[in-house]
Amino acid sequence: MERAFPNRTEAGWQLAEKLLKYAGRPDVIVLGLPRGGVPVAFEVAKRLGTPLNVFIVRKLGVPGFEELAIGAIASGGVRVLNEDVMRAVPNAEQVIESVTARETAELERREQSYRNGRPAPELGDRIVILVDDGLATGATIRAAVTALRQRGVAKIVVAVPVGPPDTCRELEHEADEIICLSRPDFFQAVGQYYEDFSQTSDDEVRELLARAAQRVT
């Protein structure tokens, strides 16, 4: 194992070190992918002095093998499918429609829950730093990047503490910039590279967003 982060907070601090050129810029916003990406993004936004918000993406997991992503959906009705996984799944079309319906309902629930009445941020012509706690297949981040392109953002910077080398390389062609602190050759799961990878709760996400909103007002 190349690197172990003590927790998401420390990973966020280390990530922020690589993003200091964006510090204090009024056209920059940090977007965390809930739930686990938000504690990382909170530290990045705090260090850079930029606003923090969430960009909600839901992985479309294969039933019975939920960690295997057949694709992902993002706010705004964007869906990205993993063609390799689709070919390996029997009755893929029916599976996708069923999983998409379920995850769309959860995405809408989270939109309402996390924002707590606050409107979604205006992203047009802004530099977006998109943060997660790590990459696996990259389906979730790809869905987010596709959705953000549709919002007319000026630049997309993907920033993650860890991810497999091939996924990081693929994203270099889709995002405008990618920061991936660790690219271990024998990658199996994001949680391997954290000493504390306990699940982030909805309450924690809401609390961090509320604290970040107070900081910039």
Explain how this protein is built.
There is one protein chain. By secondary structure, this protein is α/β, with parallel strands linked by helices. It has a domain at 8-56 and 121-216: 3-Layer(aba) Sandwich (Rossmann fold). It contains 7 helices and 8 strands, in the order H-E-H-E-E-E-E-H-H-E-H-E-H-E-H. The strands form 2 sheets. Strands 2-1-6-7-8 form a 5-stranded parallel sheet, with helices on both faces. A hairpin with a 2-residue loop joins strand 3 and strand 4. Helix 1 (8-17) crosses helix 2 (37-48). The chain is globular and about 50 Å long.
Summarize this entry quickly.
With 217 residues, the chain is α/β, with parallel strands linked by helices. It has helices spanning 8-17, 37-48, 83-88, 92-115, 139-150, 165-172, 202-216; strands at residues 28-32, 52-54, 57-62, 65-74, 78-81, 127-131, 155-162, 177-182. The strands form two sheets. Strands 2-1-6-7-8 form a five-stranded parallel beta sheet, with helices on both faces. Strands 3-4-5 form a three-stranded antiparallel beta sheet.
Per-chain topology:
Layout (H helix, E strand, L loop, with lengths): L7 H10 L10 E5 L4 H12 L3 E3 L2 E6 L2 E10 L3 E4 L1 H6 L3 H24 L11 E5 L7 H12 L4 E8 L2 H8 L4 E6 L19 H15 L1
Order of helices and strands: HEHEEEEHHEHEHEH
Strand percentage, roughly? 15-25%
CATH architectural grouping of the domain at 8-56 and 121-216: 3-Layer(aba) Sandwich
Q: Could you say what the CATH topology of the domain at 8-56 and 121-216 is called?
A: Rossmann fold
- How far apart are the first and last residues' alpha carbons, in Å? 41 Å
Helix content: 40-55%
Q: What would the principal axes of the Cα set say about the shape?
A: globular
- Reading off the top of the CATH hierarchy, the class of the domain at 8-56 and 121-216 is best stated as Alpha Beta
| Helix run count | 7
* SS elements, strand count: 8
If strands are numbered along the chain, what order do they take across the biggest sheet?
A: 2-1-6-7-8
List low-pLDDT spans: none
Largest sheet: 5 strands, parallel
- pLDDT average, as an integer? 90
Radius of gyration: 16 Å
Class per helix and strand makeup: alpha/beta
